[in-house]
Amino acid sequence: MIYLLLFGVLLALVMINVPIAISIGVVAIGGMLLASGADSMLNVPLALYDGATKFPLLAIPLFVLAGELMNTSSISRRLIDLVSAMIGFVRGGLAMVNIGVSMFFAEISGSAVADVAATGSVLMPAMKKKGYDPHFVAAITSSSASLAIIIPPSISMILYGAIADTSIVKLFLAGVIPGVLGGGMMMALAYYLAIRYNFPREDAFSLKVLGQKFRESAWALLLPIIILGGIFGGIVTATEGAGLAVLAALGIGIFVYKELTVKQLYRCMVRASVQTATVMLLVATSALLGLYLTEARLPQHMAQAIMDFTDSQIAVLMLLNLLFLVLGMFLHGAAAIILVVPMVLPLIHQFGIDPIHFGLIVTLNLAIGQQTPPVASVLATACSIAKVDIWRTSYANLPFIGVLFGLLMLITYVPSISLGLVHLVYGS
Amino acid sequence: MIKQLATSLERILEAFSVALILSMAFVIVFGVIMRKSGASLIWYDEVASILLVWITYFGSATAAIKRSHMGFSGVLFGLKGIQQKIVFWFSEIVVIGFFGVVGIYGWTVLGFFQGETLVSLPWLPVTVAQSVIPIGSALFIIAELLSIPQALEDMAMGRDHDQAELEEYAEECGLDTEELFADRKRTAGVKS
């Protein structure tokens, strides 16, 4: 009963525009006061401090900063030019380019909203000019950017890894095949729609142009090699890889492309610190809530209740998918991971589900959540830039959500898609 | 007058946040270089973690003055007149009350750490590292109070954080923000 009351208070606070992080903190303090009295309040600042000191989370500000630096310099434009030269010649070329650029960009940015803002502001007007339906333009930009959050490096995976105490490098590795598979599925759908609705092609394929665009973007392409090569090669940890990404992005932006001014650099760092703080405050207040819930043994009680209900791993995975899909409609992805993952971890362990496999399931669920209103940050960003209505765009987005859902089912019930590469590299 | 104060505080907080994130990037890259050269830094993990906590709370105060913490403004923006004002002021009291409690107990807890120092840097008192909680709470409250006039103005115009962030990106991309967000009100309501 008390948990239902606290959950109701949490929901009510979020609904009246109290920041989610603070709503969680208020509920945690309320629960602690009810359970242990005023003396427990001394634990509040300690939990809020300790909650923000998890070492793996250090990668977040650095990847966010690296992404900001790349957004601001001309890296996104160069990637668009390169992918256009590679696949623009097929029917619906710009739709393909949109998906391809999102996949490339995700490897260096790690943020779907940043991806939409950087590539969408260039690609969406170009697609609209070529006669693509604006709702389709917003839908494909938004869905492909969300798919990209399962492609490493991913802020959501870093958060999950830190909270579930799981290897972030293995999570990154597990995202490679599903990311490429999802990109391929989305391109196949775009091609089908292009044939059906007679979308235009871009310029004919030219090896000379491709070579020229490749040379122009060679430094930008070096970034994923530095970041992922360093991390997967075991040379650096995920956090150190993030530090190197910042250094490389700075070097390329300032010395190679010579397009990053001091003022832009300063604004990038301000945005990175603010974005980091909003996520980290959530992590800290959730640690406070976790302290209360752990003392109350709620996650264990929940796990037991579900085990009494079913002993089927398939059913449990379906229930968890349903939970995350519903939560994704109402909560920001980071908030959903931080709030729910600690609660369901005992259940995951009880049913013998690999936490790396589950990490991919959670991340992809939240990618779908970014596409389903009312809370659909990436879709809302794409609609803002394309200047179209979010609900009509949601209708155009249904086939792409279908692709994401199909991929989710494949990943959920065929674990080798996500774990195959991990087992190959690290052994099972 | 209040808006001027808010702008000044925003600039100071931004500068401090930038200094912290730069320091963190430097510490991590320096740590990698030293480890690869066979001279690992013993203070690397502890100092980097402290910098992350500092970024969390100073950055949170910066985010408070910009009103960019993750939240859901759909219901509030959907209300009108006195109902909207009541909900707005109630949420302000909740936010300020939360950081009031955290600040007071954060200050109390500092007393327990007197005489203790960090493990890897014995010359640095633990109270310095932990002071970020009461200082950050006080800054958050000040930032929240100073940003109320702007928040009321934005609420009246239906302009949420999502739009503010996109306007910043659009300006850097050289796009016309007036035209870009002409129909933004219809889709407003979701914060990123």
Description:
The complex is a heterodimer of chains A (428) and B (192). With 428 residues, chain A is mostly helical. In chain A, 80% of the residues lie in helices and 0% in strands. Chain A has helices at 2-15, 20-36, 43-50, 59-72, 75-87, 93-109, 112-129, 134-147, 155-164, 168-197, 207-216, 218-232, 238-256, 262-295, 298-309, 313-330, 333-350, 355-369, 377-386, 390-413, 416-426. Chain B is mostly helical and 192 residues long. Chain B is 74% helix and 0% strand. Classes of the chains: A mainly alpha (428), B mainly alpha (192). At the A-B interface, helix 1, helix 2, helix 3, helix 4 and helix 7 of A face helix 1, helix 2, helix 3, helix 4 and helix 6 of B.
Unreliable spans of chain A: none
Low-confidence stretches of chain B: 179-192
Task: Tell how many strands the DSSP assignment of chain A holds.
Answer: 0
| Alpha-carbon distance between the two ends of chain B | 30 Å
* Average predicted confidence as pLDDT of chain A: 85
Helical residue percent of chain B?
Answer: over 70%
Largest sheet of chain B, in brief, is:
none
Number of helices of chain A: 21
**Roughly what fraction of the amino acids of chain B lie in strands?**
under 5%
Main sheet overview of chain A: none
Distinct helical segment count of chain B: 10
Radius of gyration of chain A: 22 Å
Overall morphology of chain A: globular
Mean pLDDT of chain B: 83
Number of strands of chain B: 0
Residue share in helices of chain A?
A: over 70%
Distance between the termini of chain A: 43 Å
